């Protein structure tokens, strides 16, 4: 990238960075930069560092390293290492906590809050002499323990002349909690700046080549600077320029080709640097056992792939993708060889040595397993139970004897469940299981409890939970006993884990275990598996059993059974039948302070609200559920409320809210491998794009869930996107793909599952059809019984049918369907869809005003209540507290109701409403 002093097109960002540094010098504070790979975040960090040093601030820099992310507190060590001379000036507890956490001393595991406060004290102490700016790049690759501490610090730097400036990729998840920290998105360069950048660095490019690169780079500075390098001299002149893949793949290919061009010794040395992760040149020199020389790095430096920091003497890669390319171009045998060499060199660092040996080992080896187990014990004493779980699970994988494997899995279960302590019964249950000598049942109970805790608290990823539980089940005596409640509960829990994965491979151990369950799979477990594992292929028998179970819910006293029946009902559109029982569970959960039950009840009632078009009620429930979940660290369930709010925001045309909510979903779900929520985010993005007519984007997001022509097994979200994908495919000229998706739905007999799916499949067939058959198919869709239980879906069918009729010059009939669609969209507040319907009605020659429903009568009940409170003088925060809404949701409602009342400010609300009571409604 160009030097910081010559940044092109970044004037506003540079001004903002200077202003932030100036504020840090007086007050402190935190700021995060987000953006796609290569957009220039690191260069802006460099510019901030340069300006800060010139302004007299002390600058400390660190960066997350992918291959150091399993080393507890490695990132915090980077940040605090330059400040360690001041460690002795801290109070005893703070000094001791940091010393143990950073591996400088032995001692009992320090409390997480104590470590965080100690780190804050050390930073504030250092800033007493002169202001301090901490800069951290690649936040997503920080180890978990450091990320948690850094998130704590970021929200407490407003009074100590300490600043934190961090950067992360916008599409990448992280354990760094960003809530409450200002985030500035770094956007791609505009066309003028992009042209100036590429012309300045490559003035000899032929105009047509330059234009093509500008079009494909889409303003990404890294792509603008790297793509021309991959072209030969003749290609830069315009001859034989190759086809280029999508941006992310193209950049990967650029880095790979540049690494491949290096001498073999240089590539091997870079592999040592990547797998070591510290950048310590002495390690590279000695670990290579004389076969490699640091001088071999010169080729990589001249190629612009790495640099050696003059101040620290450490090697740094100029872009994270270079590290990925180095590993991708190596063989597994090469990686194992390098890990073995690094393990020998790190003989004095037990944690690093053990992990290197674990990466170098293929067959079970007790010696390595024992080392990892010892590392786990060391880590947990430093306060990082999550790192200890990972070490114990890898130790279990490498254990030759079943007894040792069982013992290590059980211990991992115990530690995993004791990560937060918010689920108060779990540690007690696991402690009893660990001490019991009841044979195999102990480890299985431990694994079940740990899995619940890991998933609910959000501190562990889904793959870890799956390995933990599937491994514990596999160790039980076969065949499995269907009357063993522990085993059945374990299989229920494993089904929950598999559902969250959206990956068929994770279901395989569950199906194998069900085959070993004798004498037969219990009916209740079979019900869940039959409707959740692959709902697109749910059998009529399974649906019949589910309908019987729903019919008996009024007499069902077990709230867990109610929740499981609701889960079985979700994808086959039977939640409406569970409403009464779910409300009872919700009430009982509040009365008994059973947070899990209350949250699960809110999740399923919220989903039902979206389907039924009760979107204001949904937002109320989702706001309450999110606050409750966050208060008790139930992050998994809390994320479902983000999805529900994202769907409403998408349908109502609030793109900024949709983007913020889906980004938050992705940032949490991606590092934990929760594919279910990644699909949910794609669903909301597809819906938003459809409403605004961005059909190419809609197709991309919808097909990311399940490809056209395929209802992917074990991806239940695909059932919500059938019509979305078909409409987007037709609108983008992909008629074959649309037809293939309709065929896939027909072959799976999806329409037989529920009226909603019958409506969606028949409407999709109509959308994909041509000629007279289109009208017949639309009429069949609208004739589906009980389709009005899904008003938004039904209105979309009316809209699409009306559009087709209008184009076929069937004006009178088109107006009938378009009018029906408009009425529903306006009632729901689905602004972009209402605009589409209104524009189509105008195209039929019908004269419409700016809106067909205005004035106080056009407000929903919740909008009217908010308007009355605002007119009475309450702030958004006060209104939110009164109605159990967030201030942001209140603001959104006010934004939507102002046009309906013909006002532009709160001050005009009283006159517009006309009957504001003296006291605001309670």
Uncertain stretches: 1-5, 243-248, 417-433, 435-441, 916-922
Measured by DSSP, the beta-strand proportion falls in under 5%
Largest sheet: 5 strands, parallel
Per the principal axes of the C-alpha atoms, what is the gross shape? globular
Give me the side-by-side strand order of the main sheet.
2-3-4-1-5
Mean pLDDT: 84
Number of alpha- plus pi-helical segments = 46
Helix content: 55-70%
Q: Radius of gyration, Cα only, in angstroms?
A: 30 Å
How far apart are the first and last residues' alpha carbons, in Å?
59 Å
| Structural class based on helices, strands and sheet pairing | mainly alpha
* Beta strand count: 9
Descriptive notes:
- The chain has 922 residues and is mostly helical.
- The protein contains 46 helices and nine strands.
- The strands form three sheets. The protein has a five-stranded parallel beta sheet, sandwiched between helices. The chain has a two-stranded antiparallel sheet with strand order 6-7. It has a two-stranded parallel sheet with strand order 8-9.
- Strand 6 (306-308) and strand 7 form a beta hairpin.
- Helix 21 (425-435) packs antiparallel against helix 22, helix 31 (615-631) runs antiparallel to helix 32 (635-651) and helix 43 (861-871) packs across helix 45.
- The longest helix is centred in the middle third of the chain and has 18 residues, at 595-612.
- The protein starts with 10 loop residues before the first helix and ends in a 9-residue tail after the last helix.
- 52% of the residues are buried.
- Residues 1-5, 243-248, 417-433, 435-441 and 916-922 have low confidence and may be disordered.
């Amino acid at each position: 990238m160009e030097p910081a002093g010559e940044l092109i097109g970044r004037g506003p960002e540079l001004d903002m960075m200077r202003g932030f540094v100036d504020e840090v010098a007086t007050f402190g504070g935190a700021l995060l930069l987000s953006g796609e790979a290569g957009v220039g975040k690191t260069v802006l960090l460099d510019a901030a560092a340069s300006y800060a040093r010139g302004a007299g601030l002390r600058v400390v820099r660190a960066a997350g390293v992918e291959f150091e992310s399993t080393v507890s507190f490695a990132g915090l060590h980077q940040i605090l290492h330059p400040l360690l001379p001041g460690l002795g000036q801290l109070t005893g507890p703070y000094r001791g906590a940091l010393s143990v956490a950073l591996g400088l001393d032995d001692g009992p595991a320090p409390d997480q809050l104590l470590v965080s406060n100690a780190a804050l004290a050390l930073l504030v102490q250092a800033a007493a002499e002169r202001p301090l700016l901490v800069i951290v790049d690649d936040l997503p690759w920080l180890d978990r323990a450091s990320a948690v501490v850094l998130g704590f610090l970021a929200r407490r730097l407003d009074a100590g002349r300490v600043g934190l400036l961090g950067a992360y990729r916008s599409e990448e998840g992280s354990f760094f909690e960003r809530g409450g920290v200002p985030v500035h998105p770094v956007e791609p360069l505009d066309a003028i700046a992009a042209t100036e950048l590429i012309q300045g660095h490559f003035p000899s490019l032929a105009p047509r080549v330059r234009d093509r690169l500008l079009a494909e780079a889409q303003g990404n500075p890294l792509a603008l600077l790297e793509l021309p390098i991959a072209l030969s001299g003749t290609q830069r002149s315009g001859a034989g320029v190759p086809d280029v893949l999508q941006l992310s793949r193209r950049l990967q290919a650029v880095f790979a080709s540049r690494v491949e061009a290096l001498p073999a010794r240089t590539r091997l040395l870079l592999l040592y640097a990547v797998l070591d992760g510290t950048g310590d040149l002495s390690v590279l020199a000695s670990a290579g056992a004389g076969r490699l020389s640091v001088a071999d790095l010169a080729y990589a430096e001249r190629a612009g792939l790495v640099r050696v920091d003059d101040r620290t003497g450490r090697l740094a890669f100029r872009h994270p993708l270079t590290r990925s390319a180095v590993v991708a171009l190596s063989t597994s045998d090469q990686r194992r060889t390098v890990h073995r060499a690094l393990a020998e060199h790190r003989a004095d660092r037990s944690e690093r040595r053990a992990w290197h040996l674990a990466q170098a080992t293929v067959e079970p080896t007790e010696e390595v397993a024992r080392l990892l187990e010892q590392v786990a014990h060391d880590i947990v004493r430093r306060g990082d139970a999550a790192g200890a779980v990972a070490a114990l699970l890898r130790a279990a994988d490498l254990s030759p004897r079943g007894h040792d494997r069982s013992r290590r899995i059980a211990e991992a279960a115990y530690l995993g469940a004791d990560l937060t302590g918010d689920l108060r019964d779990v540690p007690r249950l696991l402690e009893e299981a660990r001490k019991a000598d009841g044979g195999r049942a102990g480890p299985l109970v431990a694994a079940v409890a740990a899995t619940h805790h890991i998933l609910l608290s959000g501190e562990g990823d889904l793959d870890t939970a799956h390995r933990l539980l599937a491994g514990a089940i596999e160790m039980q005596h076969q065949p499995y006993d269907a009357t063993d409640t522990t085993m059945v509960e374990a299989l229920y829990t494993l089904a929950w884990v598999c559902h969250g994965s959206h990956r068929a491979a994770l279901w395989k151990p569950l199906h194998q275990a069900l085959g070993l369950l004798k004498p037969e799979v219990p009916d209740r477990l079979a019900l869940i598996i039959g409707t959740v594992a692959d709902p697109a292929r749910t059998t009529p028998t399974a649906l019949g059993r589910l309908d019987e179970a729903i019919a008996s819910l009024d007499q069902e006293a077990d709230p867990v059974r109610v929740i499981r029946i609701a889960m079985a009902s979700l994808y086959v559109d039977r939640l409406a039948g569970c409403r009464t029982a779910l409300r009872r569970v919700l009430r009982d959960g509040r009365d008994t302070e059973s947070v899990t039950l209350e949250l699960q009840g809110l999740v399923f009632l919220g989903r039902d609200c979206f389907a039924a078009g009760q979107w204001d009620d949904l937002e109320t429930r989702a706001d309450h559920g999110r606050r409750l979940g966050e208060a008790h660290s139930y992050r998994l369930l809390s994320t479902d409320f983000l999805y529900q709010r994202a769907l409403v925001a998408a349908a109502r045309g609030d793109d900024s809210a949709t983007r913020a909510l889906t980004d938050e979903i992705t940032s949490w779900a991606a590092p934990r491998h929760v594919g279910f929520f990644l699909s949910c985010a794609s669903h909301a993005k597809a819906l938003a794009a459809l409403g605004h007519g961005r059909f190419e984007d809609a197709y991309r997001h919808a097909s990311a869930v399940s490809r056209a022509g395929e209802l992917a097994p074990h991806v239940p979200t695909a059932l919500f996107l059938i019509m979305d994908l078909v409409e987007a495919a037709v609108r983008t000229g992909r008629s074959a793909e649309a037809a293939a998706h309709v065929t896939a739905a027909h072959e799976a007999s999806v329409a037989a599952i529920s009226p909603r799916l019958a409506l969606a499949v028949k409407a999709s067939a109509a959308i994909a059809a041509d000629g007279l058959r289109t009208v017949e198919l639309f009429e069949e869709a609208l004739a589906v019984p009980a389709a009005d239980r899904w008003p938004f879906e039904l209105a979309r069918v009316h809209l699409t049918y009306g559009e087709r009729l209008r184009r076929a010059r069937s004006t009178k009939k088109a107006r009938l369907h378009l009018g029906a669609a408009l009425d529903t969209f306006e009632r729901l507040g689905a602004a972009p869809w209402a605009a589409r319907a209104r524009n189509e009605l105008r195209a039929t020659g019908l004269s419409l005003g700016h809106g067909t429903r205005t004035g106080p009568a056009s407000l929903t009940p919740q909008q009217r209540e908010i308007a009355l409170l605002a007119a009475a003088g309450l702030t958004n925060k006060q209104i939110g507290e009164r109605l159990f809404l967030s201030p942001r949701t209140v603001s959104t409602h006010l934004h939507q109701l102002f046009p309906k009342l013909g006002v532009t400010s709160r001050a005009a609300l009283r006159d517009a409403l006309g009957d504001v009571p003296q006291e605001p409604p309670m």
